[in-house]
Amino acid sequence: GSSWKKCDFETDLCKALHELNLQPGWIRRNGRSGMGPLYSDHNGNDSAYFLSLSSEMQSSSATLRTNVFLPTDEEHLCQITFHYWISQMSGTLMVGLQKHSEDTITNIWQVSGELQNQWKENTITINSTQEYEVIFSGMVETQKQNETVAIDDITFSEGC
Fold first, then answer.
1. pLDDT > 70: what percent of the chain?
2. Quick one: pLDDT at residue 47?
3. What is the CATH number of the domain that holds 60?
4. Parallel, antiparallel, or unpaired: how do β-strands 78-86 and 92-99 relate?
5. Residues 16, 30, 11, 95: what is their CA dihedral angle, to the nearest 10 degrees?
6. What angle is formed at CA 123 by the lines to CA 10 and CA 116, rounded to 5 degrees?
7. What range defines the domain where residue 17 resides?
8. Buried/exposed 104-141: b ≥16 CB within 10 Å, e otherwise
9. pTM for the whole thing?
10. C-alpha 2: how far from its chain's center?
11. Beta bridge mates, 88
């Protein structure tokens, strides 16, 4: 159903993401949470929820992992679209692919903090002959005030 297809974080995580996969570094919040910068989601709504790295984070990175997806086929590649926000100074967001037979995560997309503190949108396409998981990793330099990485409205196409 549609809950598989879109994670907007309004009530919780969607079915493509497990609560267990939400590591302590990520926090589900909105612009009114009083947690510093990022005062609205990508639609400019201050009461809508998104995920961001917690400023209390002890380590500098946190990952968000999807459930296991089945192999893709020629007609149905897996397309994942998401919105992201990165602090100007020190934020990085990476998307990785972990195939079932491999221990390592292959980095398939990455962006760092030269962005001017604004929401952007990106789509990645995945082609995999075996079962796989997708991993979103956010990183900031800790001890810096008001630095964060956020993610919102992750949508998964039919091929995922």
1. 84
2. 94
3. 2.60.120.200
4. unpaired
5. 0
6. 80
7. 6-156
8. ebeeeeebebebeeebeeeeeebebeeebbbbbbbbbe
9. 0.88
10. 18
11. none
